[in-house]
Amino acid sequence: MLRIRCPWCGERDEVEFRYRGDATKLRPAGDADLAAFAAYLYERDNPLGWHVEWWLHVAGCRQLLKLVRHTLSHEIHAVLAPSDEVSLPTAEARR
Amino acid sequence: MSAPDARPTAGATDGVAISLCRTDVTELAALRNRAAELEAIAARRGLRLPPNGHVVTTADLVALAVRPQRWLLLSAPAAPGAAAATWQALCADTAAAVDLSSGITALHLAGPSARDALARGCRLDLAAESFPPGRAAATMMAQVSTILAALPSGILILTPASTARHLREWLVATARPFGLAPPADD
Amino acid sequence: MRGPARIARGLLTDAQRPLRFRFDGRDLEGLAGDTLASALLANGQQLIGRSFKYHRPRGVVTAGAGEPCGLVDLLGAAGREPNQLATTLPLRDGLVAESQNRWPSLAFDVFALNDRLSRLLPAGFYYKTFMSPAWAWERLYEPLIRRAAGLGRLEAVVGDHADPAETVHDHGDVLVVGAGVAGLAAAQQLGSCGLRVLLADQDVALGAGPLLEPRWDAWRAATLASLARLPNVRSLASTTVLGAYGHGVFGALETLSAEESRRFGGLRERLRIIRVRRVILASGAAERLIAFPGNDVPGVMLAGAALAYLRRYGVAVGRQPAFFVNNDEAYEALFALAAAGIRSPGVVDPRTESWAMTRARALGIEMHAGAVVSAVGGRCAVRTVTVADLGGAHRATLPADCLLMSGGHTPLIALATQLGAPGQWQEAIAAFTAALAPATGRVARAAHGVFGWAAAARDGAAAARAVAAELGLDAEPLSALCMPADAETTPLAAIWEVRAPGKAFVDLQNDVTAADVRLACREGYEHLEHMKRYTTHGMATDQGRTGGLTGAAVLAAARAVPVSAVGALKPRPFAQPIPFAALAGGEVREHYRPKRRLPLHDWHETAGASFVSAGLWLRPLVYSRTPGWEAVLEEARAVRSAVGITDVSTLGKIDVQGPDAARLLDFVYANTFSTLAIGRARYGIMLREDGLLFDDGTTTRLGPDHFLVTTTTANAGPVLEHLEFHLQSVWRQLDVLLTDVTDQWAQFALAGPRSREVLAAVIPGLDLSNEGFPFMAAAAADIAGVPGRVFRISFSGELAYEIAVPAVHALTAWLAILAAGHSLGIRPYGLDALNLLRIEKGHVTGAELNGNTTADDLGMRRMLKPRGDFIGRALAGRAGLVAPDRLQLVGVRAIDSAQRLRNGTQLVAPADRTRSLGYITSSSPSVEHPGWVGLALVAGGRARIGGRLVGLAPAHGETTELEIVSAHHVDPENTRVRA
């Protein structure tokens, strides 16, 4: 089970959050074509390693968080605000 | 109630005493970058809005924050919507004041075993050193959205009105092994 | 002494408190403090069950939670509970237990024939034999296998599960798993520097390791007393840590003492979810078996178990205990039994010399050094033990009534493995150890290969100091308390198997032999995890704790590689069987899931409503408790002919405020809201980004920057989340505040041609004329003195209003409206009538907004705004969503109005009944038309209006000829709502 350190609420159980997917996918401009929207909605990497993802703290502060999580070890490298820049760790995850 | 911690907590020497608090609830939500202005408006009314995760009590209000730039104000019951209307008039263009008096039900848990009983359904660390009086948190309890606030008199629990009966029945069942004091109110 | 084998005073038993119990129909006596196993052994009952596959007689092997054979059925008020561990089950007065896997009786078991036929039951037998034909699985093989194999049997539990359970959430700085010397020392060290410590041990008593050693009594007592003085240390006995789930989360199962159980209303188990910053794993080691022929005969057990039965319960497991051991630690049992006057007929040790052997010889015990046990005489009990030298030559036959074995000690590193720690082979103990990352915690004692009590205590304290340092605290070593020195020991000589004729088991619970492991290897299952699945080695409830590594070693020998190259089985949660009831915790019966109640719930109940669960809500279905449609039709007729009122408070309501409120709504809705006038409402549809319909509802503009959005009942939560997500990610620049006001407002629909008259009576000040308050108007108003809101919107298709008041004033407003409508025949109507009315009108709900439909499918294409961005805009235009043969919304009516319609009925062409053209989504008896009306999604449906299709409901044996009509069964011109 993940324990997510919410910047507003402190460390909380995973069940309080709703996973909202890949946070690196940016919605295309409103007038973009079908292909751009299809890529935004459907094309996903499945990395073994660090993944940047949205989690909404629905049972807490209802803030959207940007997590950097390791898909194998589940280590959470950072919990950020939506507008924060992400730098992926260079080192491999701790086990 | 005036403020929950001002109420006598009958039966608090037994395990757990559960009571219902009749209170108006107003949510103040600051518009973008207007939180400081809102805090200043509140301060002029004698209310220091607490930082996120905290609760404060004044003579006639309980104010708590569990979401950034938002506060819940609990006050004695008055005419429907009056409290929210007063605040909205004070902070037009700065914040939204929404009446939630009907939408939120307040319960009060007192007694030496209150926190032990809550640990049966609450995933937060409610030990006195981690959640001392003055702290507040939004979480889930017995599968229901819940806001908890630690007051000197016990734990204040806010829950959506539609699930209040469910939560109350659960609390009564959960608190029973610890010794349930008769309700002090209602 | 209560039982012929009770030869001494046990440390845990109370000789003054006899208890009566029954096993397989025999009435027996034990003592308070006994487990079922110790009480049975005290009565000389070694045979306790039959094995899983071969139905061989079995007795208890261990004295704890890793027990492979001592599984029994417990018979109680709640019915039969299978797979109870006799070795941990506390004895209580009146307990009734039965052995498992025997038919018709324990001593004579028909299926024991399997044992004789074992050549026909090799590893992978089921995979090889029951292959085809496919039909035979269900009808023949499975029932047969289920009767012949398996562990205990499940019976329908009598009534409800009678015993409550609960889940408790725990928090702390450090969890110490295991309260042996290392765990106790660690807890004391951590506690004395002020950390919040949870100390958990599966045993009923803390310090159970040193409990077996009288020299350690003083240390144990002093340490426990010091822990009891530390309020920041919580000791949890009888608590098994079941699994490690990462991020400092552990699951544990606590078995309540009788006293605690009474206090908690009969609660037996408590699931603890523990969250800590660090863990110290001091869970010790499990003694392992040796695979030799006959190692499963009742009376063959682990040497450590015999020591435990003697010290804890005062029970001698035999009068003539032979030994087959390879390590000095196991000699403790020999010495303790000898001290109690039980003389061993001989000790077999493959080593030639050791410190312990020397001490044994000094006691005059017959030693067979450099030897192994090659056979056990006896079937239901041990009679003789055959000793051979290492080359296999016969050396001696010892008379014995039990055989105490020890193949060494395997550190219990399951939790460390679950936390990602790789096993590291240690030649000195012939086992794997593990180490944790400092950010996770530390292992102590056996888990990194430390044996001996004094060494363990030092190791536990050292681990604690390291963890304290990790947490930023500087811990001084505590003064060493009266700690006895460890005796000198000689390392073990690894021995895994004795190759001799006969079955040598590596897994006693699943009946896996060393030969099975070799067969699996020959057949290509060389990887340990493959061998496990092929043979079922280590897959039983004990998870191979006594023989898991032995099986791995046999596989290593078959592959001619070292054990370290084969590895150890990956242990997964749970560490021991856990009842489902404990996992469910308190969330059962009325607490199974929350119920949301309407503000007027009690009124509806008093008015005679039948309730229906709609999501979490309880809603009035119809104001009648008589089955049938009559009351529903009456309610609906009242609405069509006069006036009715229904409670729609379940609708989701979101208060939207801020300078960018209109922009946000234009973006999340497919139609436009920025053009909506203040005091007006508009119906809106929301798409998902993939272009399919998400939700619908009316939105009212309360002020320039203030809207009230309503959602469907089912989507109240998802829509709010959808808005919040987009507001905080894609549209971060927008200044909008969203507040859920669903529970704040009670809302009623007042519908019917006379509704205006009723409303006028309760809101005297408002001009309700079409000019003053037209269709889709909204206004603030006092309803019977309660400040609220009124909207002219209609779901029923009639002239209608919705009235919203703060929920605590719902009753005042509701009663005032009923009183005002009394002379007009106003009736409350429930969800069935509401559904009837909206189906007649052709309004959609979740049955049509089902995640597969587009706006065009439901006839709402014109609502999509032609310009500007909105969620779903781009993908709504993709080819698959605009194809002409998509399912489109139409109405259906039976040609023969006596025939009923059903949701889910498939629609086919009369000429081709094999291809579905669509299905009925909603249906109801009608008040406007004879018989039933329905809504359906039909391929190219709009072009079929006026035509006929056939409805097939094969599950009901029904075929219905249907007329395809407009979805608007009533008032397609929309004149009534504007009346």
Report on the structure:
The complex is a heterotrimer of chains A (95), B (186) and C (979). Chain A has one helix at 34-42; strands at 3-6, 10-13, 18-22, 50-56, 64-70, 76-80. Chain A is mainly β and 95 residues long. Chain A has one domain (3-26, 35-80): Folate-binding superfamily (Folate-binding fold, 2-Layer Sandwich), CATH 3.30.2270.10. Chain A is globular, with a radius of gyration of 14 Å. The two termini of chain A are 15 Å apart. With 186 residues, chain B is an alpha+beta fold. Chain B starts with 15 loop residues before the first strand and ends in a 5-residue tail after the last strand. Residues 1-13 of chain B have low confidence and may be disordered. Among the domains of chain C are: 1-158, 2Fe-2S iron-sulphur cluster binding domain, sarcosine oxidase, alpha subunit, N-terminal domain (Ubiquitin-like (UB roll), Roll), CATH 3.10.20; 166-285 and 411-470, FAD/NAD(P)-binding domain (3-Layer(bba) Sandwich); 290-406, FAD/NAD(P)-binding domain; 496-582, Arc Repressor Mutant, subunit A, CATH 1.10.10; 883-979, Aminomethyltransferase beta-barrel domains (Elongation Factor Tu (Ef-tu), domain 3, Beta Barrel), CATH 2.40.30. In chain C, strands 41-42-43-40-34-44 form a 6-stranded mixed sheet. In chain C, strands 45-48-47-46-49-50 form a 6-stranded antiparallel β-barrel. Chain C starts with 13 loop residues before the first strand and ends in a 14-residue tail after the last strand. The model of chain C is unreliable at 157-161 (pLDDT under 50). Classes of the chains: A mainly beta (95), B alpha+beta (186), C alpha+beta (979).
Straight-line N-to-C gap of chain C: 94 Å
CATH homologous superfamily of the domain at 166-285 and 411-470 in chain C?
Answer: FAD/NAD(P)-binding domain
Number of helices of chain C: 26
Q: Shape of chain B from CA axes?
A: elongated
* Major β-sheet annotation of chain B: 6 strands, mixed
Count of distinct structural domains of chain B: 2
How would you concisely characterize the structure shown here?
The complex is a heterotrimer of chains A (95), B (186) and C (979). Chain A has 95 residues and is mostly beta strands.
Keyphrases for this structure?
heterotrimer, A: 95 residues, mainly beta, Folate-binding fold, 4-stranded antiparallel β-sheet, C: 979 residues, alpha+beta, Ubiquitin-like (UB roll), FAD/NAD(P)-binding domain, 26 helices, 23% helix, elongated
